[in-house]
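Retro notes, item 3 of 5
We never archived the inputs for the iron/sulfur cluster complex last cycle. Fixing that now. Sequence and ligand:
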Amino acid sequence: MASLDGPLQTELRDQALALGATYVGVADLAPVRDFVTAQGGEFLGDYRFGVSVGIVLSDAVVDQLYQHVNRDIARTYFHHIYTVVAGMLDRTAATLAFAIERAGYRALPVPASGPYNEERMTGLISHKLAAHLSGNGWIGRNCLLVTREHGPRVRWVTVLTDAPLTSTGGARSSGDECKDCTLCVDLCPAQAFTGVPFNPAEDVEVRFHRGECRAYLGQRGKAYGASACGLCVYVCPHGWSAKRKSDGQRTAPEVLRRQLTGVRRVFEASA
Ligand code: SF4
Ligand code: SF4
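Structure as it came back at the time:
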């Protein structure tokens, strides 16, 4: 977790941690202002900083996702990320926003999930980008924010503010550490990832064919009422729990490939 200095930043960090956060950081959004306003609207351009907060997902929930074609596993994951963790994040963001306002500044708690642009598969802003700029990880080949300690098993929220905070982005490196790994690219059942590394200057479509993922999630939603997959969260070795890391059978890449080739066949047969 990046360090936060100054009385207001310290108060924000302490409040976020008390509400269940594991990651807290501050992103300087000035260099990406055009990107932020193009995605969410010009009204977001008044805020120089984003307080980025991350909550780690339950390993017990995520570790089951290689079986996400099971209705109960899919529904449990869907509920966990969109109701439980998103609710915790929204409450945390509102609490931090109120604290910033009490200190005399403006603060906008951006919703953790919706409102959501279904076509572009984007929210009001990119929480991943704010988390990346706050020094908490890199954008992986799975187009998710990947942390060193929990991989992509973290959900994020951002509080935009004009308070004069200090960016934590330089506090630690957040360079691409996917290196030679291509597990998420190889195992996505919809083959939605191209494997091209993150470059903020390029459109996300260069790295991620959203339509393919959307079609797969739509198929899952039709089958189970829960548009859940999460294999790109599950497979990333950076997020493997201590138990899985010590379990050679379940973590070996060839075992994962075997498990998930079966999932892809199910998808292709029913597409
Ligand atoms: S959610 Fe599933 S289908 Fe969508 S990109 Fe991730 S692994 Fe692929
Ligand atoms: S699975 Fe591998 S390539 Fe994909 S995000 Fe994780 S480290 Fe990067």
